[in-house]
């Protein structure tokens, strides 16, 4: 969306920052690949929400699946590490193992799997959100894929798991604490939006959603250092997370057998 993004990447990279991009892949091209490479990009992540029919349905983009795979191949050919990000819904859950094979064929290094939550577009299609039984099915399958040690490496996102029997298996085997340690928004992660608003995580709602209670400040008015160290910043995202969990639970209670 910003024509000057290569300059931002280059400036950050020269300061030792490992810069990553996340893209839907729809307009990715050979030219963009070379631009990203020259700017010093560290890795590129592409959203892939299922096999062809599922992905194109979710993204509402004709040939979107094919374009994502082409974008991945362009980056791999340019020696740019590629990550895939997939949110799991009732559409994509049956495709889990096939997706892993497909991503391996396209030489993806890491696959981040996360639960689709009833926010954004999925709020209008809550029947696709996984229920407790389906999550119980998903977790051992993720662990099984991790233990194959075949690429791509499978990473369970923060909203997967939480202290179940498979918790230690789901987390990074090299981590000092092998369990979920809470949301890292505003602790190790922050988001700067295109209008300068700063919030703890890109997933938190803001102006686009008619919400402003998670916006900590604006770079057009304050320095980032001052925003980050403001002791009167708004509450942590826990209230939003609990709202999502409560809404999901209510969906399950109201869902017919």
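Sequence proposed for the structure above (257 residues):
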């Amino acid at each position: 969306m910003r024509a000057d993004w290569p300059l931002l990447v280059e400036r950050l990279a020269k300061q030792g920052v490992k810069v990553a991009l996340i893209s839907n892949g729809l307009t990715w091209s050979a030219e963009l690949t070379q631009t990203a490479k020259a700017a010093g990009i560290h890795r590129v992540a592409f959203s892939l929400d299922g096999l062809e029919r599922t992905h194109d349905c979710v993204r509402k983009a004709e040939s979107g699946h094919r374009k994502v795979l082409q974008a991945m191949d362009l980056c791999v050919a340019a020696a740019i590490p590629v990550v895939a990000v997939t949110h799991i819904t009732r559409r994509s859950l049956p495709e889990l193992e096939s997706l892993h094979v497909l991503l391996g064929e396209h030489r993806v290094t890491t696959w981040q799997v996360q639960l689709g939550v009833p926010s954004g577009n999925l709020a209008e299609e809550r029947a696709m959100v996984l229920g407790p039984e389906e999550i119980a099915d998903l977790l051992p399958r993720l662990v099984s894929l991790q233990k194959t040690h075949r690429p791509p490496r499978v990473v369970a996102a923060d909203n997967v798991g939480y202290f179940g029997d498979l918790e230690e298996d789901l987390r990074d085997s090299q981590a000092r604490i092998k369990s979920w340690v809470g949301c890292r928004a505003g602790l190790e992660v922050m988001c700067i939006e295109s209008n300068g608003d700063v919030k703890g995580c890109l997933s938190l709602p803001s102006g686009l959603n008619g919400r402003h209670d998670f916006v900590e400040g604006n770079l057009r008015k304050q320095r980032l250092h001052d925003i980050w160290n403001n002791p009167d910043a708004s509450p942590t995202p826990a209230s939003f997370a609990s709202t999502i969990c409560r809404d999901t639970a209510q969906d399950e209670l109201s869902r017919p057998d």
